[in-house]
Amino acid sequence: MDSPSPARRHSKKPKYSKFTQQELPACKPILSPGWVITTFAFIGLIFIPVGLASLFASQKVVEIVDRYDVACVPEHLQDDKLAYIQNSTEDKTCTRKLKVPRLMRSPIFIYYELENFYQNHRRYVKSRSDKQLRGKEGEGDTESCSPEAKTSNGSVIVPCGLIAWSMFNDTYGFSINSKVLDVNKKDIAWNSDKYHKFGSDVYPKNFQSGPLIGLSEQEDLIVWMRTAALPTFRKLYGKIEVDLEPNEEIMVTIHNNYNTYSFGGKKRLVLSTTSWIGGKNDFLGMAYLTFGGLSLLIAATFILIHLIRPRSLGDPSYLSWNKNPVGYSN
Amino acid sequence: MARPGRRRDKLRWSKLYTFSCVRPAVLLDTENPPSLQGPGFSRVVYCNQPRVHRKKPFRYPSNYISTTKYNIITFLPKALFEQFRRVANIYFLLAAILSLTPVAPFSAVSMIAPLCFVVGLSMAKEALEDWRRFVQDMKVNSRKVSIHKGGGKFAYKPWQTIRVGDIVKVEKDQFFPADLLLMSSSYDDGICYVETMNLDGETNLKVKRCLEATLPLDDNTAFQDFSAIIRCEDPNPNLYSFVGNFEYDQQVFALDPSQILLRDSKLRNTSYVFGVAIFTGHDSKVMQNATSSPSKRSRIEKKMDQIIYILFTLLVLISLISSIGFAVKTKYGMPEWWYLQPLRTTNLFDPSQPALSGIFHLVTALILYGYLLPISLYVSIELVKVLQAMFINQDIQMYDEETGKPAQARTSNLNEELGQVDTILSDKTGTLTCNQMDFLKCSIAGVSYGIGSSEVEIAAAKQMASEISGAHERVSSSQNPWENNAFRTSEIELESGITCKIDKVRKSAVKGFIFEDNRLMEGNWSKEASADVILLFFRILALCHTAIPEANEETGSFNYESESPDEGAFLVAAREFGFEFCKRTQSSVFVRERHSSSHPIEREFKVLNILEFNSKRKRMSVIVRDESDQILLLCKGADSIIFDKLSKNGRIYEEETCKHLCEYGEAGLRTLALAYRKLEESEYSAWNTEFLKVKTTIGPERDALLENMADLMERDLILVGATAVEDKLQKGVAQCIDKLAQAGLKIWVLTGDKMETAINIGFACSLLRQGMKQICISTTTADPLAQDAKKVAKENISLQITNASQMIKLEKDPHAAFALIIDGKTLSYALEEDMRYAFLNLAVDCASVICCRVSPKQKAMVTRLVKEGTGKTTLAIGDGANDVGMIQEADIGVGISGVEGMQAVMASDFSIAQFRFLERLLVVHGHWCYKRIAQMICYFFYKNIAFGLTLFYFEAYTGFSGQSVYDDWYMLLFNVILTSLPVISLGVFEQDVSSEVCLQFPALYQQGPKNLFFDWYRILGWMANGIYSSLAIFFLSINIFYNQAFRAGGQTADMAAVGTTMFTCIIWAVNIQIALTMSHFTWIQHLFVWGSVATWYLFLLGYGITSPLYSRNAYKILIEALAPAPIYWVSTFLVTAACNMPYLAHISYQRSVNPLDHHVIQEIKYYGKDVEDRHMWTRERSKARQETKIGFSARVDAKIRQLKGKLQKKYSSMGVLQSA
């Protein structure tokens, strides 16, 4: 009675397709010694030139690094740097002399570097309001900015949050042989930040003293607002758009305002040219060389293995039942 | 109503039957009915008054059955509960809830969305599976049966409408829709035949008989005004008991199980029966027996849980490190970090309460590092398994044309377990055999007739023929050509003997008869020397049975309805030989005899008594009076029994017959010996008076007395000959067993059938062979009266087991094989606590194990013993309700769906239409699924460790503040989108070798049971790989993007740039990793793997152009910041290569120095060596199974060894000769 009718019977038959029968055409690459050796040798042969190129590019970069946080504190206040920095009456100006080691072609990028500054701390990273930064209408959006959202009398801070509040405020002036070097502080931030993230109609309010210009113009703020990944970081300060000749002496006038003394942070001024890989960092080149070398070594090992104990591919004597006639084993 | 069956209604079988259904219906004293009050006996059934049962208290469940887990209302809560029973899901739920608080390191949506996705998907799968069950139930519920609707009219209605008290009319070959009380049948004396194969797996028909009182109710109209009351026991699962009273016509009758027709058994040989529904739906005994199938989990999944615990420990550990680090940093560092405004903090970052902050941070960290636990693991595995199951369901090579049923994975969570099976426990009837008998050979008067060969012989011969060429080479290479010739001749003899038979296509024009021998056919037998004995032989075939002939209008001949298929085969054989059994009356059997080609003569034989078959007697006899008034006792039975009862002068043919019986047995045939005895009139009448007296006695000793009477008659027999019937194996069973044996699987046969049959089948499917040492463990019939009979029996069995174990231990020949045969009674002792392990150890040492006469419960117990005792994966396969216990108990239960009963299938995890599909299911699908799932899980853990640990390293650089370097969206998409499809494609499509190779080298299957792909070595290796990758990704990226400008424009990298680069490296590294893991790339894998990488870039692009309010620092990150920077690409390349180099070196090394079997085979296939060098291929194929001890390949190998041994002897004697 419930025996299926022929039609229904038929419908139960699985339909044949290469997919359902798991017979799709497939490539089944075999990891033959040839392939392995070629692959490793190839990786090695690619890596070493790339490594050399990177290393070369990195070496070409001229970089002047000057740590000034200690040096800029007057001798007599060296024991209590914190008091010095917190004392607003003290003169914070400080002059440093930098020697150009090699020819530095423009543009020469000026960075400040902070060490032991946790810009990546969760409390810090979160404390900002993108909405507020973006446009006037988001001014009141300061929820995420705590504890630096509102002033004690309840009016909003623009830009709010710990990041903006703790903005780096040392300034640098450069001169060579008393001739002032122009520092271009434009175009140091990402265009996308300038045009889409920071509104031109957003003006600082209840913020550090400063001229009343739209946030999108304040590129130093924009740069600062991009939190760094590591506690040691550099941020772009400006650009010098003239070449610096070797052995020239640059006079830097620093307004040493920023307090890194309380947490034992270091401040550095960095002048650097760039190459295609960016600034000076030999690590990439070294890493390439290391892994390239390792790769060649592995390739050589496999060549040796292949020479000493060659196994012809598909040699049935390696099948478990041939290796170990009584009982299987892998 | 026209009733063709009425003609034979005059038969009153009860008069003829000796042993069954003779018990007179006891009329109870109305005044004093047996106490059916009290608990357990509350059921009252008002027959034919279903109206009464609409209201309480007689409202019983309807006949609607439901096996679904959920309904619409309970689905949500229940399914949710099921989902959150998984530890990992609870963890993610907590994390999702906590993500709403400020503790969370991520935005809430990035925690909740994946959880909803994952849980939703799993629940959708549950819902789908439950829907399927519902559809299945509906199919059963809507089967139609004829129900009395009042006024003597019956109408077809669906099963589910039956209520207690309904009168139901069941027709021939229909299932009983509920537990019924038999009222009457188409036979005058109210008996009917019932096939209970679905319930207990027994194939012979059972006779049920109604009460005398209800006999007249044999017509539709008779039920017009019928009413009665049944008081009986409450629903219970006991199939063999029933206690109740039947109140009818102011009289009370006792009911017993012989009047009860159980749901899911089938009406046979009876046109129709009427019955009253007593238990309906879930009250019916068979449903009461149905235990909810235990949820099974695969070994791999259990191990996966352990890995999850390891990862959880790791998670807690790094969270602790992180929160301690955080507390320390908060206490000592934070007060100085003025830019964090340490004085205006909440509890989360309070330097004055570092401990409290630390505790809060622990929660944060636990959420943050949750990426170590793959949230999508479960759902991916489930999805993969569903797809794998789909492939199993869709496999056209597991589709049975005859029954129209494809294979079906009923639960998808055991797919990979199919690849790890160690022991198969198989039912016999309906699973290995079709339960169809074919008359193939016979031995009459010491001459063997029948030249056809059994399937076993044919299969073995084929194997031999193909094998011999290979063996040939093996021999010839080592021995000199002269001697090789000798081998060749002997081999040709051997070959020609069988191969000539193969060529003939077996005719199967007549069902049940494949006999071929011109000496007997077409009346030629009368020309044989001992024609009179042959005549007698045929008469025994035609007379000694309990079948009923049924004219077949189409062919003009008769069909026979017999209690057992053997009998049917005999009758068909007799018909073909010219002794057509054509009519049975109450007292006579009519046989149309056709000697030579003359016209048939109808002869009448008066049947005086039938001493019918039962499993204890193992024989049946009829006493007939022929036309010349000669009284004959014709007997057929098991050879051992018959040979015992032969008279001195009846043993003329004993020796030859014995030899033939042996041959038949080896050929896998079922044998019976036939004998007769001439009786004197006086002798018979004396016996008969005594017999009638015994027959009417009532009391417990009646059966014993009857048996004694029968014994008195069945003695001094004269042997006529023997029959050999092929218990037809299902198609391909022998080949399948052979392959499974080669795959290293142990096969146990558990059957309810008798020992002889079981052994025959053992031979038929090459589980046994000549030369195999059979260990029969049996109980000696110790004095049953002895007090400690049980103890004696147990000691005896224990001794047998010890001896057998000793024998195996002392065996020196590596090719020796042992077979263990044990019967149910002995098994019940052997399964007891103190003996089971000794028994198991013995059984494990034997190549094949056959347990006969085992009850369903014992089947389950044996299964549990094997499962727990060996700790290996067991698979139980069966077709009937008697296998349900074993199917549920085993790690994997497989039901045969070809037969009509559904219990086994319903209880099973996989259903296939034929036993032979098991080979493909295990060797192909099991092998693939195991490797796929194993690799998939390993990879899953790898990728999450590689990803999750980078979060930890970074956190250490942020003063343990719980900041992550990645955007929330990256993390959200990592598991769910960016890396899920490749791993799913690995889990669904990976094939180490093609299905043909799997089938050609069943030995490859052993990789599963040996667990080569999911052992701790491998798992920890993968974890180490993950840790290495995380280190490489993090430290390389961090140092490359240290503090300097990262592009020519002078910009330095912020967190977003570093995070995105690192994430790009991860995406590349894990995708290249999976590409290295795969060995089989279809366009799908290519699409998914490379598509995932592409998706990442596309996502980055898309995400980058959404409003910066959403994308925040990732705004235009790719197009503006990263893509133009060469260092981004260069570092991706470096990190990806660095991450995968060790793995590549490792697998290359493994492969070149220590290749696994599938590696070598892949290579052979890849370079086409199998085509170039076919000999090598076949040689390897045969070598791969040299360890196999069962299956016909082993049988052939044994034969070849034997031949070689003979040759060696010959050679040495020749050598002696020559030297002399």
TrEMBL record, chain A:
Look up keyword Cell division and say if it applies.
no
User: Which GO CC terms are listed, alphabetically?
Assistant: endoplasmic reticulum; Golgi apparatus; plasma membrane
Q: Where are the transmembrane segments?
A: 35-57, 286-308
Q: Where is this region: Disordered?
A: 129-151
| Compartments (UniProt record) | Membrane
**Coiled coil location:** none
Q: Which UniProt key words apply to this protein?
A: Membrane, Transmembrane, Transmembrane helix
**What InterPro entries would the database entry show?**
CDC50/LEM3_fam (IPR005045)
Where does the UniProt annotation place the signal sequence? none
A UniProt-annotated Pfam family: CDC50
Biased composition, class Basic and acidic residues, residue ranges: 129-139
Q: Which domain of life is it from?
A: Eukaryota
Which family does the record claim for this protein? Belongs to the CDC50/LEM3 family.
Name listed for the protein in its UniProt record: ALA-interacting subunit
Species name: Spirodela intermedia
Automatic annotation (TrEMBL), chain B:
Q: Which residues form the active site?
A: 427
Cofactor requirement? Mg(2+)
Cross-referenced InterPro entries, in alphabetical order?
A: ATPase_P-typ_cyto_dom_N, ATPase_P-typ_P_site, ATPase_P-typ_TM_dom_sf, ATPase_P-typ_transduc_dom_A_sf, HAD-like_sf, HAD_sf, P-type_ATPase_IV, P-type_ATPase_N
Q: Name one GO biological process term.
A: phospholipid translocation
Protein keywords: ATP-binding, Magnesium, Membrane, Metal-binding, Nucleotide-binding, Translocase, Transmembrane, Transmembrane helix
**Gene Ontology cellular component list:** plasma membrane
Q: Which Gene3D superfamilies match?
A: Calcium-transporting ATPase, cytoplasmic domain N, Calcium-transporting ATPase, cytoplasmic transduction domain A, HAD superfamily/HAD-like
UniProt-listed Enzyme Commission number(s): 7.6.2.1
* Localisation per UniProt entry: Membrane
Boundaries of every P-type ATPase C-terminal domain copy: 905-1155
Binding locations of ATP: 427-429, 567, 613, 636, 670, 751-753, 853, 859, 882-883
* Residues reported in the UniProt entry to bind Mg(2+): 427, 429, 879, 883
Topological relation to the membrane, as annotated: Multi-pass membrane protein
Q: Which family does it belong to?
A: Belongs to the cation transport ATPase (P-type) (TC 3.A.3) family. Type IV subfamily.
Q: What is this protein called?
A: Phospholipid-transporting ATPase
Q: Which organism is it from?
A: Spirodela intermedia
